[in-house]
Write a structure and sequence with these properties.
The complex is a heterodimer of chains A (about 600) and B (about 210). With about 600 residues, chain A is an alpha/beta fold. In chain A, α7 (about 145-155) runs parallel beside α8 (about 175-180) and α14 (about 355-365) runs parallel beside α15. The radius of gyration of chain A is 26 Å and the shape is globular. Chain A starts with 10 loop residues before the first helix and ends with a helix.
C-alpha cells in the first residue's frame, strides 16, 4: 500500500543509498525507522551473521533476509575450543544447509564450531553446486574426507575452501584430487591444523599451477614441495604449513623464489635452520604466525628483527619479555599481537619464555597502534596495565590470562590497573580478564562495570570476592551483550540477578560458581525468550602438560541466551545438556509453595 | 521431579566394584578391607550432609557434582606416607584400602572412568540422572587421581589445537631422540608410540 504524498525520500533513492551501508548494526538501526525502510533493508541485506545459531531458525532467516549472498553461523560456545563442551552438545548445520537453495543469491557459507556431517556436504554440493563460491568450516567436526569429495566434484566455482582446525575423519586424499582436477578458480585453500596428511602432494602442486591461489594453508609440506609451490603459485600472498622432517641445510637451498606478493607466513615446525630461509622476505611480511614454530626466545628475536613491517604477529609465550622488547623496537606498525600459552613441561620451552610486566611495559612504549592484544602472562603489575592504558589508545580487543604456575604475583589485586586501562582505552569492545583468587577485588570488578562503556564481549575468570562484586559490575557495562565467566565464586542467585540487570545481555556462559541444591536460584533471570541450559558436572582427563593424566570433575556450566524461537529440539540424548524453561521455574515455585 | 532413587549409577558402580574386587584378587592384594568412618584427611567438610546432599541432588539432576566445592580436599597427599591408603566414598558408605601403590591407583582410576564413561542412566521414573558417581579421593602422592574440582581451582585449560601441537611435537622429539633425558612420559591421549620411554612418575602437585 503506497502512500503518495511523502515528504521523505522516494523509495528508489532509499534503495540506492542503503546498498552503501554494509555494517550490520547500521542496517539494524535503519530497519527500525519505518516499515518501508524495514522492507528495503530486508530485501537488500547481503550478509547475515548469526552469532549463535539457536537464536533463530533457517525459516525465519529466509523470511527476513531472502537475498543474502553470505551467511555466517556460530554454534558451540567458545568453551568448546578448550574441550569444555561435550562433542554432541549441538550446533548442527543440517537445517541451514537443507534450506540453502531457497536463498537465490546465497553463495558463501561460513560455519564456526558446528557439527557437519558428510550427508550435509553432499546435500550442499547438490543444492548449491556451481553457485557456491566460498565455504568456510572453522573448528567444525563430524565429517570425513568422503564428504569433501562431493564438494570437490560439484562445486566447480568454489573460490575459497577453508577448513581450519577441524576434526575430520581422514580416509584418503581423494578429495584433494577431485578438487585439483575440477577446479581452476580456487583462490583460497586452507586445511591448516586439520590433520589431513594423506594428501598427494602432486594434487597440491597441480592446484598451485592451475588455480590463481592467493592463500594456501596446508598441513604438511616439505621444503622441496614448498619450493615448487612457490614457483608455481605466483599470485600467492599467504602461505601456511610445514613439516621439515628432514634436517635442512640452508646452503643447499641458496635461494628459494618467493612469490612476489607473499606477505603472510605461518610455518609449522619452523626451526632455527629453516628460519634462515625466510630472512630474505622478512621485510615484506605483514603477518607472521609462530605459534607452531620450534624456536627459542633468541630465535624469535632474530627473526622478528628482520620483519619491521609486521602488522600481525602470533607466537607462544616463548617469545618472552626479550621478544617483546624486539617487537617494540622493530614492529612499529603492529596492529595485532597474540601470545599463546606454551607447554608447561620442563625442557619443552625456553626458560626465558615468559611474559611479565617488564615486557608488557616495553611493548606499550613501542607499539602504539595495537588494536588486538591477547597474551598469557606469568607475572603482572598494575603499572603494566596503566602503561597499556596510557599508550595503546587504539586497543579494541584486550585479553589477559594470568598463568597459574607462579605462586606469587608481584602486584595484586589489579584494581587500579584495570581501571586505568579501561579509562585509557576508550575504543575497547572486547575484553578478557582471567586472573586468580585475589586478582581483583569487588571494587575492582565494579570498576570494570563502570568503565567499560562500549565493551560488547567479556570473559572474566577468577575475579571479585563476593556476590557484591558481580552485582556492582552488572549495574554498569551498558553495552555488554555476551558474558563468559569461569571460576568466580558467585552464587547462582547473584549470577542470575546480574544477568537480569545487564541491560544489553544476550548471551551468558558460566562455569564454576556456587550452585544451589536445586538450580532454581537462577529464577531471577527466568523470563520469556531467555533460554537456560545446564551442562551438569562431568569428568575429563586432563593432561597437565607433563604427560601426566589427571582426572578432573568439572563443575557444571550455565548457558543462557535470548532466542526468538524457543527451546531447541536437538539436545544430546545422554542428558549431558539439560534445558530449564520458565515453566520449570513456575512448576518449582508451585511445588515448593505447596510442600 | 522428585524421584530419589539412584539405580542407574548404582548398577554401574556395582559393576565397577566387582571388577575392582576381581582386579585386587588378581593382584593378590592382602590389604584390609574396612568399612570405616570417613578418613579425616579426605573427608569433605560437609560430610554429614553427603547423604542429604545426594538425595537433594537427585531431585534435580543438574545439581550433580554440586555441593562439594567448599571442601578442603588436600590437593597433594602428605609426602612419604608409609602405607598409602585409598578411600572410596559412595552413598554414605566408605571403603578404605591399605597399601595401594600409585600405579595400581592409576589403573583403578582408568578402570573406573571407563565404567562411568557410559552415559548417564535413567531411573525408574524416567528422570534423567545427573553425573552422581562419587569421586575417588586418595591420600597417595601419585598422579592420575581423580580430583573434585574446587571452583577456585579450575585449571586454566588449553586450546585443543595447541594441545594437539604439543603432543605432535613430543612425538617428533622422541622419534628423533628417544633416549634423551628430557623425554617426558608418554601422553596417554595420543597413539602409543613404541619409541617413547616412560619417565618415572613424578608427583605433580594437584
Amino acid at each position: 500500500m503506497e502512500r503518495e504524498s511523502r515528504r521523505g525520500m522516494p523509495d528508489v533513492i532509499v534503495e540506492c543509498v542503503i546498498t552503501y551501508v554494509t555494517d550490520a548494526r547500521d542496517r539494524a538501526a535503519i530497519s527500525l525507522v519505518c516499515r518501508r525502510w524495514y522492507e528495503v533493508d530486508a530485501l537488500t541485506r547481503r550478509h547475515a551473521t548469526i552469532a549463535f545459531c539457536y537464536t533463530a531458525t533457517p525459516e525465519r532467516l529466509l523470511t527476513r533476509f531472502r537475498n543474502i549472498e553470505g551467511l555466517k553461523l556460530k554454534g558451540k560456545p567458545r568453551a568448546a575450543m578448550f574441550n569444555l563442551i561435550p562433542e554432541n552438545w549441538g550446533g548442527y548445520v543440517t537445517p541451514w544447509i537443507g534450506i540453502s537453495d531457497l536463498f537465490p543469491r546465497l553463495r558463501s557459507l561460513h560455519f564456526r564450531r558446528m557439527i557437519v556431517a558428510d550427508a550435509d556436504l553432499a546435500m550442499l554440493a547438490n543444492l548449491k553446486g556451481r553457485l557456491l563460491e566460498l565455504l568456510t568450516l572453522e573448528k567444525c567436526s563430524g565429517y570425513s574426507t568422503d564428504g569433501l569429495l562431493h564438494v570437490g566434484r560439484n562445486c566447480r566455482n568454489l573460490r575459497s575452501l577453508i577448513m581450519e582446525d577441524c576434526s575430520i575423519n581422514e580416509l584418503n586424499g581423494d578429495w584433494l584430487h577431485e578438487l585439483a582436477i575440477n577446479n581452476t578458480v580456487l583462490e583460497t585453500l586452507n586445511f591448516y591444523m586439520s590433520d589431513l596428511e594423506k594428501i598427494n602432494v602432486n594434487d597440491l602442486e597441480l592446484i598451485a599451477r592451475t588455480c590463481p591461489l592467493v592463500s594456501l594453508k596446508v598441513c604438511d609440506c616439505e621444503i622441496p614441495n614448498l619450493i615448487t609451490i612457490f614457483q608455481s603459485a605466483t599470485k600467492l600472498e599467504e602461505f601456511g604449513g610445514g613439516s621439515f622432517k628432514e634436517p635442512v641445510d640452508p646452503e643447499f637451498y641458496p635461494s628459494i623464489t618467493f612469490p612476489a606478493r607473499l606477505r603472510s607466513l605461518c610455518i609449522t615446525y619452523l626451526g632455527r635452520d629453516e628460519m634462515q630461509l625466510f630472512f630474505p622476505v622478512g621485510h615484506l611480511l605483514k603477518k607472521l604466525d609462530l605459534v607452531y614454530a620450534l624456536l627459542d626466545t633468541e630465535d624469535h628475536c632474530t627473526l622478528i628483527r628482520k620483519c619491521p613491517n609486521l602488522e600481525v604477529l602470533e607466537a607462544r609465550n616463548v617469545l618472552g619479555d626479550k621478544g617483546l622488547d624486539i617487537v617494540s623496537q622493530t614492529c612499529k606498525k603492529l596492529k595485532r599481537l597474540r601470545i599463546e600459552r606454551g607447554a608447561d613441561e620442563q625442557g619443552m620451552e625456553d626458560i626465558e619464555g615468559v611474559i611479565t610486566q617488564r615486557g608488557l611495559i616495553s611493548l606499550s612504549l613501542g607499539c602504539h597502534d595495537l588494536q588486538y592484544f591477547a597474551f598469557y602472562a606469568s607475572d603482572i603489575t598494575n603499572e603494566a596495565l596503566e602503561s597499556i592504558g596510557a599508550n595503546m589508545k587504539n586497543l579494541s580487543d584486550f585479553r589477559l590470562v594470568l598463568l597459574d604456575r607462579e605462586e606469587k604475583i608481584t602486584d595484586l589485586p589489579l584494581d587500579k590497573g584495570v581501571r586505568a586501562l579501561l579509562i585509557g582505552c576508550q575504543n575497547l569492545k572486547r575484553f578478557a580478564f582471567y586472573l586468580r583468587s585475589g586478582g581483583l577485588t569487588d571494587l575492582g570488578l565494579s570498576y570494570i562495570g563502570q568503565y567499560s562503556q562500549h565493551v560488547t564481549w567479556m570473559l572474566l575468570g577468577y575475579v571479585g570476592q563476593s556476590d557484591e562484586g558481580i552485582l556492582a559490575f552488572s549495574r554498569g557495562c551498558p553495552s555488554l551483550e555476551k558474558l563468559e565467566m569461569r571460576g568466580c565464586l558467585f552464587s547462582e542467585r547473584a549470577i542470575a540477578q546480574a544477568a537480569a540487570q545487564l541491560k544489553s545481555l544476550k548471551y551468558l556462559w558460566v562455569q564454576g560458581y556456587k550452585p544451589s541444591p536445586t538450580g532454581f536460584d537462577l529464577s531471577p533471570m527466568a523470563r520469556p525468550f531467555w533460554n537456560i541450559e545446564l551442562i551438569p558436572a562431568r569428568r575429563e582427563s586432563l593432561d597437565d602438560g607433563t604427560g601426566q593424566i589427571t582426572l578432573f570433575e568439572y563443575p557444571a556450566h550455565i548457558l543462557a541466551y535470548y532466542s526468538l524461537v524457543g527451546r531447541r529440539t536437538d539436545f544430546p540424548g545422554d542428558n549431558s545438556v539439560i534445558p530449564l524453561t520458565l515453566q520449570d521455574f513456575w512448576d518449582h515455585c508451585v511445588h515448593t509453595s505447596i510442600s | 521431579m522428585s524421584s530419589p532413587a539412584m539405580m542407574g549409577p548404582k548398577s554401574n558402580f556395582n559393576k565397577t566394584c566387582n571388577l575392582f574386587s576381581q582386579y585386587l584378587k588378581e593382584m593378590r592384594f592382602s590389604g584390609d578391607l574396612n568399612l570405616a568412618s570417613p578418613d579425616a584427611n579426605v573427608e569433605p567438610k560437609g560430610a554429614p550432609n553427603v547423604d542429604s546432599a545426594m538425595s537433594t541432588m537427585n531431585l534435580f539432576p543438574l545439581s550433580s557434582g554440586v555441593g562439594f566445592y567448599d571442601e578442603t580436599i588436600p590437593k597433594s597427599a602428605p609426602a612419604g606416607t608409609a602405607s598409602p591408603q585409598m578411600t572410596i566414598f559412595y552413598n554414605g558408605q566408605v571403603i578404605v584400602y591399605n597399601d595401594v601403590s600409585a600405579a595400581k591407583v592409576k589403573e583403578i582410576i582408568e578402570l573406573a572412568s571407563k565404567g562411568s564413561a557410559v552415559s548417564n542412566a535413567v531411573d525408574v521414573a524416567g528422570q534423567p540422572m545427573g553425573l552422581a558417581l562419587p569421586v575417588v579421593g586418595s591420600n597417595v602422592s601419585a598422579p592420575g587421581l581423580t580430583n573434585r574440582m574446587k571452583v577456585s581451582d579450575l585449571p586454566i585449560v588449553r586450546k585443543a589445537s595447541l594441545q594437539r601441537f604439543f603432543e605432535k611435537r613430543k612425538d617428533r622429539l622422541s622419534a628423533k631422540a628417544p633416549y634423551t633425558l628430557n623425554n617426558p612420559a608418554a601422553d596417554h591421549k595420543s597413539k602409543p608410540n613404541p619409541e617413547q620411554s616412560k619417565s618415572a612418575a613424578s608427583p605433580w602437585p594437584v
